[in-house]
Amino acid sequence: MLIRNFIFWLSTKRRVTNSIARRGMKYGFARRFVAGETLEEAITASQELCAQGRRVSLNHLGENVSTETAAREVCGGYIRMLEEMHAKNLKGNISIKLTQLGLDISKDFCRSLAREIAARASALGLTIEMDMEGSAYTDATLDIYESVQRECGNAGLAIQAYLYRSEKDILRLAPLKPKIRLVKGAYREPKNIAVQSKKDVDAAYKRLTTLLLEGAAQGAYFPAIASHDPFMVGHAQAEAARLKLPPDRYEFQMIYGIRRDLQNEVFAAGNGLQVYVPFGTDWCPYFMRRLSERPANCWFVLRSLIAESGAAPKHATNQPAA
Ligand SMILES: Cc1cc2nc3c(=O)[nH]c(=O)nc-3n(C[C@H](O)[C@H](O)[C@H](O)COP(=O)(O)OP(=O)(O)OC[C@H]3O[C@@H](n4cnc5c(N)ncnc54)[C@H](O)[C@@H]3O)c2cc1C
């Protein structure tokens, strides 16, 4: 836990992340979790995944922006991503973060950009998903999600199992027949609003998985089980079997480069699998969060640096993490 917190803390220090960023792409270790710095690289990675039958969700890395100009630029970037996906006939969607679209500046401004993206996606026959960020943004994200989904009907939303409020939020969204991406939750949240221990997070995740799959059996949701935890995946598979839910009524989601063994297993069992494909120049804080989730990943970084100096096999960075 100490190591996790230390790496997580480092991920918030710009001097540290800049220094890692200078080396990460050069030495290749960042490529394990980040598809590249440009849209072209992300498209190439996505084409490979789609050729294997996966769907993809492209995510342009970066978080809070502080000016309307920057938010508009991000919005234009998301639209280019959609157009490129459409041109290349890639199966999947894009994932957007509302703080990249000016949520800190104004909710209405952010809503208008999110709507613009969803409308363009809809015109191209595509969908979008919204990431869920820290709890300071939960209310605003739900509010914007509801209006965009009501208007365009092609948006999905991430819901965090560790928040006490999530069951109510899921029930509140049911009339919109949403795609819900169920995640455990990636932020540090206080104990009055989120469960803290792995045991309690896992219990909440399983309970909400059942709620979503039962809802899917009645046509209320399209659940996306977004976890690399084999127990969560196993629970979802068992519940889908109990409910006799066909595989086209729900899907699994995992992140690029993480538990590729489990990704193969889930896909080989006949399930739909969507891979979250992050890219962009601002990849370092994201990369550090992946390290903090599993400090064993640091070994990976070290091995690739050693390999570069000629002391270890050249392809050390391609080994599975788990
Ligand atoms: C597609 C997708 C989208 C997401 N979107 C959001 C979002 O919008 N908002 C949000 O708060 N969170 C999001 N998350 C992150 C999520 O909340 C968790 O922090 C993250 O998925 C780790 O939880 P887990 O369910 O994989 O289980 P854990 O209990 O954390 O891990 C289970 C097992 O998975 C493997 N594993 C997990 N992480 C790693 C890693 N970094 N490297 C190697 N192995 C690993 C390990 O084998 C571990 O034992 C998303 C996750 C996914 C898969």
Secondary structure topology:
Layout: H1 2-10, H2 14-27, H3 39-51, E1 55-60, H4 68-87, E2 92-96, H5 107-123, E3 127-130, H6 138-152, E4 155-160, H7 166-173, E5 179-183, H8 198-217, E6 222-226, H9 230-242, E7 251-255, H10 260-268, E8 273-279, H11 284-293, H12 297-308
Parallel strand pairs: 1-2, 1-8, 2-3, 3-4, 4-5, 5-6, 6-7, 7-8
Helix pairs in contact: 1-11, 4-5, 5-6, 8-9
The chain binds flavin-adenine dinucleotide (FAD).
Flavin-adenine dinucleotide binds at residues 131-132, 158, 160, 181, 183-187, 226-229, 232, 253-255, 258-259, 276, 290, 293-294, 297, 321-322.
Number of strands: 8
Q: Which shape, going by the Cα principal axes?
A: globular
Query: How many domains, as an integer?
Result: 2
Proportion in β-strands: 5-15%
What order do the strands of the largest sheet run in, or round the barrel if closed?
A: 1-2-3-4-5-6-7-8
Query: Class of the largest domain in CATH?
Result: Alpha Beta
Radius of gyration based on Cα positions: 19 Å
Q: What helical percentage do the residues reach?
A: 40-55%
Largest sheet: 8 strands, parallel, barrel
